[in-house]
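FORM 7B - TANDEM STRUCTURE REPORT

SECTION 1: FIRST PROTEIN
SEQUENCE AND TOKENS:
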Amino acid sequence: MPQAPRHGPPAAKSLAVPQARRQVRGLRTRDAILARAVDIASVEGLEGLTIGYLAEQLGMSKSGLFAHFGSKEELQLATVEAARQLFIDKVTRPAISAPKGMPRLWRLIDYWLAMVEKNVLKGGCFFSAASFEFDSRRGVVRDRIAAIMHEWIAVIAGAIQKAQKAGHLDPKADPMRLAFEIHAIALGAHWAYQLLDDRQAYSRARAIARDKLRSVATAQCPRLP
């Protein structure tokens, strides 16, 4: 016996398509908001990033922003995550396409410095600024910034260990100490570039990092740029 036509599923599908489109538009809007938020926070700091100020800069209503972020803290955390993704896109992912060993390690350092040198963000290195802003504060925003910085130092230390396994660096060198030194060199460059307007800061930082790596390089190490 033929069954009666079912009208439920087609109607549900017709409703689902516009809803999916609205969700995509919402995600695109959120991404655009966060891209602007990262740039503003790199200059004004995360504490200077309020829903009201961001709405004013974007020409949006506060209620429109509240639909995406229910509080200042939620906005700050979302901004930190957006900054992390930007760093991955500009530094980590392109660098790991290099061969393991010294080429990859050097590219991580070089791309990190270049991201600020090329003024990707108006305020320079987002995480350097955020680290100084929140280092003596307590709370979830500070904890997330600290976790991301631990993650980044671990990436550098991991690249050093791979360079050792590749026979490019002295196996007796302490990966964490070397990662600490590289990180300190970069932070010094960020500070000099932003605060002192020292336009030689990054060429100087590269030269210092290069000398440091050469001091623990082996005879099999590829030549540094």
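SECTION 2: SECOND PROTEIN
SEQUENCE AND TOKENS:
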Amino acid sequence: MDRADETYFREQIEPLLGGSGVEFIGEINEQQKTAFLGQALALLFPVDWPEPFGLSMIEAMACGTPVLAFRCGSVPEIVEDGLTGMIVESMDEAIMAAPKVIALDRHRVRRRFEERFSAARMAKDYVNVYRALLRRAREQGEPGEALEPLPLHPVGSINHKVEAAN
């Protein structure tokens, strides 16, 4: 834990850890995180500030774990209400929604993660952006030599040689 957070933790969080139904896990590494999130019934994401992305939501969905999140920041862009989780406005709504979130199909949650947030999806989107930029440069007749895009290969099978131009 960062020193800046130690005082906050000691004064604000630690007093809440003695209650029943609360188990303090502490910091976990990446390998432990996958097992931890994968075994969770759901991820509760009670964000109350305009979170710009919310990586923990994506990490949970990568494990097939649905997300129960408050409508704030990037939550509506990440959570597909009723498919990968549920979006709520208050703690009372979260309590009412919890059984529905837990009942969501974990295989569908994982499948939507693959379709929307996987490295393969990201790479494909980047290639599409680069191709569109090349196409626009050619159409606008921008100065400079137009480059041909490299042919796409399935992920994990790129075994081509790149030859230096003379």
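SECTION 3: OBSERVATIONS ON SECOND PROTEIN
The beta strands are 43-45, 67-70, 85-88.
Residues 27-140 form a domain with the Rossmann fold fold (CATH 3.40.50.2000).

SECTION 4: SIGNATURE
Preparer initials: ____
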